[in-house]
Design brief:
- With 106 residues, this protein is an all-alpha fold.
- The protein has one domain: Leucine-rich Repeat Variant (Alpha Horseshoe).
- 75% of the residues lie in helices and 0% in strands.
- It contains seven helices and no strands.
- The relative contact order is 0.14.
- This is TGRM2 protein.
- One of its GO terms (biological process) is microtubule cytoskeleton organization.
- InterPro entries: ARM-like, ARM-type_fold.
Length: 106
C-alpha cells in the first residue's frame, strides 16, 4: 500500500501543470532511485513512460533537470533500464539539437 501511494505521488508530481511541481517530481524520482531502487526497477516502464515526457519538457529548466537526473540514475538502475532504453535514447537524442547550452551539455 505504501509503495502504491509513493508511486501515485510520483506520477502526480511528474505530470503536474506547474513546472516547479514537475521539477519536484524529477527530484523525488532521483531520490527514490537512490533510496529505493527496487521500487523504481519493479515499476520502470510505468514510471519512465511519464519521466520520458520530462526529458522533452517544454520548460527548459525541467528538461535540463530531468537530463541531469537521468545521468545520475543510469548507474543506479543499469540493467533495469533495458525495457525503456529505446524511448530514453530517442528523448535524449532529441536534446542534442537544443540551442540551450544547459540542455545540450546535460
Amino acid at each position: 500500500v505504501e509503495e502504491t501511494e509513493q508511486l501515485k505521488e510520483l506520477y502526480k508530481l511528474l505530470t503536474a501543470k506547474e513546472f516547479q511541481t514537475r521539477m519536484e517530481g524529477v527530484v523525488l524520482l532521483l531520490d527514490h532511485c537512490k533510496s529505493r531502487p527496487q521500487l523504481i526497477s519493479t515499476n520502470i516502464v510505468q514510471i519512465f513512460d511519464v519521466f520520458v515526457l520530462r526529458l522533452q519538457d517544454c520548460n527548459k529548466k525541467v528538461n535540463q533537470q530531468a537530463l541531469e537526473a537521468l545521468a545520475l540514475m543510469t548507474p543506479v538502475l543499469r540493467d533495469a533500464l533495458h525495457p525503456v532504453l529505446v524511448s530514453l535514447v530517442a528523448a535524449v537524442t532529441d536534446n542534442l539539437n537544443s540551442k540551450h547550452l544547459g540542455i545540450y551539455a546535460a
